[in-house]
Amino acid sequence: MADHSAKYQSGFGNEFATEALPGALPLGQNSPQKVKYNLYAEQLSGTAFTMPIKENKRTWLYRMQPSVVHEPFEEAEHATLRGTPFDEALTPNQLRWSPFDMPEDDKDFIDGLVTIGGNGDSFAWSGCAIHVYTANKNMKDRYFYNADGEMLFVPQLGSLVLRTEMGVIDIRPGEIAVIQRGIKFAVDLPDGPSRGYVCENYGLPFTLPDRGPIGANGMANQREFLTPVAAYEEISGDITLTAKLGGKIWNSKMDHSPLDVVAWHGNYAPYKYDLDKFNAMNTVSYDHPDPSIFTVLTSPSYPTGTANIDFVIFPPRWLVGEDTFRPPYFHRNVMSEYMGLIHGVYDGKEGGGFVPGGASLHNCMAPHGPDVKTFEKGSEASSDPVYLSATLAFMFESRYYIRPTKLALETQALQKDYYKNWQGLKKNFKS
């Protein structure tokens, strides 16, 4: 077996070429008649063949056995994971959840996924689903791939080791990873029980947002994204391959690990990003900027500017606006916002209730903003520069309504008194 420590190459959307054994990558053509080490050549296409070259995603894999070597899939049950259609009734109410408890019995990452809500249509490649996970068991002899969409991992408690077809990725809270549609992987928990969030993107693959007037640098820079180098597993035994297709879970039996890729080249590969590397853009004069300036990744849709899903963060940063209400302002948005907290205190909710591992949902045009304590503090604060430290929140923002699942509306984690955060905002008007 090859070395399975995490090793990386940098860049976003690059044409990578990597081999775990010398000469495993063919030279001059993708599918020669014979591949060194008696490997099989297999292409993995993440977009249609005819997509424009700048958007075309595909990778050539050189593996011990092709992916077709498995027994027939059989549908399986999953009590808390689902897909489209999300057809539950919408509510205009603001919603917030406390952190989900760790499981009492053994659950790996896949078994520990709980769908909070979603939108769009995975059959039509649009929309997203939002999940939380709580897990306490490694995926031993079990592997997974998602045919419905790519998965953005946001750990909040405990690190993850993602063993993928293209290599090994390790992420801790404060880092993220993306595994694209169809790529096989397994999840290990090096720190023990783990909790976090997953955005399942049914639409166009995540990419970096256009910077526009910001220019060539800033926000998330391409070179800070890391993609694994080739690392293979040569394992035989009773292996389960689990797939997600059409919102349902399917299991198949194999006699070998599907992570048997010895070499690969292409631009369709998983990656990680350290959110500490984000170069936050902010006001240096007055007013709180729109949160879109903190976008890390976007899944574009049309018309341009109304994203299928954006991944936005609120990292440590300087606040320097003069005579400005510095916390997030009161707001109503045509986009729908699901927000989570990785660590610290969010500067818009200093009154409590929004804690690490928790989340809130403000759907289209649902009013939201600072709670009473935050408003009072922000209204009286000095204009001296302040460094906002020890905090990291994020947002999944979508052009489509995010419909919460029945489970999300019935769980004990739902805070039924969330609305009280704003009831103490008094009428201060004086003519």
Helix content: under 10%
Q: CATH class of the largest domain, anyone?
A: Mainly Beta
- Please, how many helices? 2
Write down the secondary-structure element order.
EEEEEEEEEEEEEEEEEEEEEEEEEHEEEH
Total number of beta strands: 28
Task: Please mark out the parts with pLDDT under 50 across 5 or more consecutive residues, or reply none.
Answer: none
- Quickly count the domains: 2
Largest sheet: 7 strands, antiparallel
Strand content: 35-45%
Mean pLDDT: 95
Q: Tell me the distance between the termini.
A: 77 Å
Task: Report the structural category.
Answer: mainly beta
Strand order of the largest sheet: 20-13-10-15-8-7-28
CATH H-level superfamily of the largest domain: Jelly Rolls
Rg, nearest Å: 22 Å
CATH architecture of the largest domain: Sandwich
The shape is: globular
State the CATH topology of the largest domain.
Jelly Rolls
What does this structure look like?
This protein has 431 residues and is mainly beta. The chain has 2 domains: 8-85 and 108-275, Jelly Rolls, CATH 2.60.120; 279-421, Sandwich (Jelly Rolls), CATH 2.60.120.10. Helix content is 3%, strand content 35%. The protein contains 2 helices and 28 strands. The chain has helices spanning 372-380, 406-410; strands spanning 8-10, 16-19, 40-45, 58-63, 74-76, 95-97, 113-118, 128-135, 142-146, 150-157, 160-164, 167-171, 175-179, 185-188, 194-201, 226-228, 236-245, 248-256, 261-266, 271-274, 295-299, 309-314, 317-319, 336-344, 359-362, 386-388, 391-398, 403-404. The strands form 7 sheets. It has a 7-stranded antiparallel β-sheet. Strands 6-25-24-27-22-21 form a 6-stranded antiparallel β-sheet, with no helix packed on it. Strands 2-19-4-3 form a 4-stranded antiparallel β-sheet, with no helix packed on it. The mean pLDDT is 95.
